[in-house]
Amino acid sequence: MKFFKHVKYTLLLGLLSVLLLAPSVDASQFSFSQSPQSHEVVAKPGSTVVLPFTLTNVGDPSVMELHIYAVNIEDSTGAYGIIPYYSDNPQAIQFSLHNSTHLLSEPFFIHTSEAIAYEVAILVPDGVQSGDYYFAVVGQAEQNDGYVDASTLSIQGGVGSLIYLTVSTDGTLDQAGSISQFGVQSNYSIHLGNVEYVLFDSFQEIPFILQLTNTGANLFRANGTISVRPRFFGSGSKLITLDATYILSESGKTLLSSESRDRNNSARIQAPFIGIYSAQAAVNIGSPGHAQVSDTAYIVFPFSYILYLVGAVLFTATGVVFMKRITKE
User: Fold this and answer.
1) pLDDT digits (tens, 9 = 90+) for 8-40
2) Which of 32, 74, 199, 267 is most buried per CB count within 10 Å?
């Protein structure tokens, strides 16, 4: 009996190993990448610009197509959507594959681990109005189900690269922006003199938010830092590097960093035990860049610890009084 019991457990362990450790197999593994992620171009009316791209397949062999999408700003926060763009109007901006026997939207086969280099020619006809135009060059699987609108380019069944095209008759750019919001997010604050201090409990997470607004006619690239320094009874300075990003015309965006938890904050850091701190945001806007600076301040204090201590003292005092009364009785 012991032998059969041993065999039963051995078979059970083997079955669990197969179920838990065996890799899942899909009918088709879609995995592509395209580089570069974006191109920033300034072109004059009547000119043609040629941009290089590389589409790489690291999944199963697939039939692909190349498509052009127009990128439209949806709101003032920098979110955008994409819609198919067709070069069927000779007076509008035209797209084509450069030095290629293939056409845009024409299916082609790409093998596993194959990288296809191609060039997209952009013709800016005479008479095109000066300003910014945003497009996406997308490699997508044939019979794609569609696309997803998002604040970052996310296409179902495809990969894309953004093209930031500025049409200018003389090559000059109108790049201007400002810091529309910088601070730390909390429900409590106090005023000491002319300075507002935001309040945080000890070891609480401190969320920073830094938003830029494009006040010019053309997009610009922004980058910068948030520096945190102790003012009084604190220790340790911190420098947060913000990720470089494009701010499209007539829109704004929250700058992010490696310490962002989501797109609603620029960084999150843990508060120390106690101290008064100042934080400064320094942002470079455009090329050549001009700096924008904004300051904020906050106080970290052990509110919860003091509350617990007061509660413990009151509880102890109440217990002592109660015990004395019992003893007298």
Assistant:
1) 333 333 323 332 333 333 445 668 899 999 999
2) 267
Measured CA to CA, the distance from residue 306 to residue 48 in angstroms comes to 69
Torsion of CA 220, 78, 155, 23, to 10 degrees: 100
Tally the C-alpha atoms within 13 A of residue 101's C-alpha that lie toward its C-beta: 1
Q: Which residues have C-beta within 8 Å of that of residue 329, sequence separation ≥ 6?
A: none
Q: Where are the domains of the chain?
A: 32-167, 177-303
Answer CATH for 32-167 from 3.40.50.720, 3.40.1190.10, 3.40.109.10, 2.60.40.2310: 2.60.40.2310
Tokens of 80: 């955008």
Identity of the amino acid at 120: V
CA distance 214 to 140: 32
213-271 pLDDT, tens digit per residue, is 999 999 999 999 999 999 988 778 999 999 999 999 888 999 999 998 888 899 999 99
Q: Find where tokens 């992620």 sit.
A: 37
The residue type of 270 is Q
**Is 167 in contact with 129 (CB distance < 8 Å)?**
yes
Question: Domain 177-303: which CATH class?
Answer: mainly beta
pTM of the model: 0.76
